[in-house]
Amino acid sequence: MTRFTPAELEAARDRLVPDVVADGLTVLFCGINPGLMTAATGHHFARPGNRFWPVLHQSGFTPRLLKPSEQDELLGYGLGITNVVARATARADELTSLEYREGGRILSAKVARLRPTWLAVVGVTAYRTAFDDRTARVGPQERTIGGSRVWVLPNPSGLNAHWTAATMAEEFGRLREAAAA
């Protein structure tokens, strides 16, 4: 993996990272927003220590562990990636409630256009803020967006110590089973 200097990472602040999407996906995973490593590399969930890629594999979504640089292979599995908020920051707590709500509006329009079977938001707090749903919990939601069902997953950031990779993989696996049904 390429090593970036602090200055190179800081230069990636506010960059946009292209979505990995197509019409009619089975699951569109939605991160909170790109981190600086993601923005610097152009690959989603690129920060070492982020558990998205290992958990995606452990839960059975992918037949092997993909590297962030292999993100386009997700489309072949009927999977994609986007974000609630497009701009890159060092930490999610740099985002405002207004950015989350606007991101939720933009995400809703994107989901209505792309029509995935499931929208999977990784981060319950981001989901609660973006969609003004204070009672949301990890798991399937009552809400649908443009005909797509919604599932909230735990945030795979290494900072989310409440969830282990194993318990996260179980929850991702629940979604995978629902998506296969």
Summarize the structure.
This protein has six helices and five strands, in the order αβααβαβαββα.
Account of the protein in words:
By secondary structure, the protein is of the alpha/beta class. The protein has one domain (22-180): Uracil-DNA glycosylase-like domain (Uracil-DNA Glycosylase, subunit E, 3-Layer(aba) Sandwich), CATH 3.40.470. The protein has helices spanning 6-11, 36-41, 52-58, 97-114, 124-130, 165-180; strands spanning 27-31, 79-83, 118-122, 139-145, 148-153. A 5-stranded mixed sheet has the order 2-1-3-5-4. GO terms for molecular function: hydrolase activity, acting on glycosyl bonds. Residues 18-179 form the Uracil-DNA glycosylase-like domain.
* Mean pLDDT reading: 93
Count of DSSP strands: 5
Q: How widely separated are the two ends?
A: 37 Å
Largest sheet: 5 strands, mixed
CATH superfamily: Uracil-DNA glycosylase-like domain
Order of helices and strands: HEHHEHEHEEH
Give the radius of gyration.
Answer: 15 Å
Number of helices: 6
